[in-house]
Amino acid sequence: MLRLLFVLSFIVALPLCSKEQSKPSLESFSGKVIKIVDGDTYDVLTADNKTIRIRMNGIDAPEKKQAYGQKAKDYLARLCFGKEVIVRPYSFDRNKRLIADSYTATKMDLSREMVRSGYAWHFKKYSSDKKLADDENHARSARAGLWADNEPVAPWVYRSKR
């Protein structure tokens, strides 16, 4: 009986151990932005030469083929392409991208800047950040970026129609 309990506990513990080994650490790190995927996603090269795809926390930018999609991508590139960023991870999304806050060396919050400039929505479904909400309201009032459109379409609405 004791032997059976030992074998069962080993079988139960084995998958837990293997998951822990394959799951990256969620500690802050820095790296160089080497690719802009779209207005809320980029690739960063770490000091140990690993490329990590980052999905910016709290925002949703227009899709590539959507109005302002290319402008959002270009704006994010102006902010951080080829530059060092500090990444503060939260979790992973269903596409295995690291969801994280991102900051430039000058401590600019990239998510806030994208929303403030009118190139991304505050993604309220996943974020209750009051600062992002205020930034979006300010951008709407100023008709900045995508808010210059008469009827801007949120990316999640655009994706649901495809």
Q: What is the secondary structure topology, with strand pairs?
A:
Blueprint: H1 2-22, E1 29-38, E2 41-46, E3 51-56, E4 59-60, H2 69-80, E5 84-92, E6 98-104, H3 110-116, E7 121-122, H4 130-142, H5 155-161
Parallel strand pairs: 3-6
Antiparallel strand pairs: 1-2, 1-5, 2-3, 4-7, 5-6
Helix pairs in contact: 3-4
Task: Please characterize this protein's 3D structure.
This protein has 162 residues and is of the alpha+beta class. It has a single domain, classed as OB fold (Dihydrolipoamide Acetyltransferase, E2P) (Beta Barrel). It is built from five helices and seven strands; from the N terminus they run H-E-E-E-E-H-E-E-H-E-H-H. The strands form two sheets. A five-stranded mixed barrel has the order 1-2-3-6-5. A hairpin with a 4-residue loop joins strand 2 and strand 3. The longest helix is centred in the first third of the chain and has 21 residues. The chain is globular and about 45 Å long. The protein starts with a helix and ends with a helix. The N terminus is likely disordered.
Give a brief description.
By secondary structure, the protein is of the alpha+beta class. The protein has helices at 2-22, 69-80, 110-116, 130-142, 155-161, and strands at residues 29-38, 41-46, 51-56, 59-60, 84-92, 98-104, 121-122.
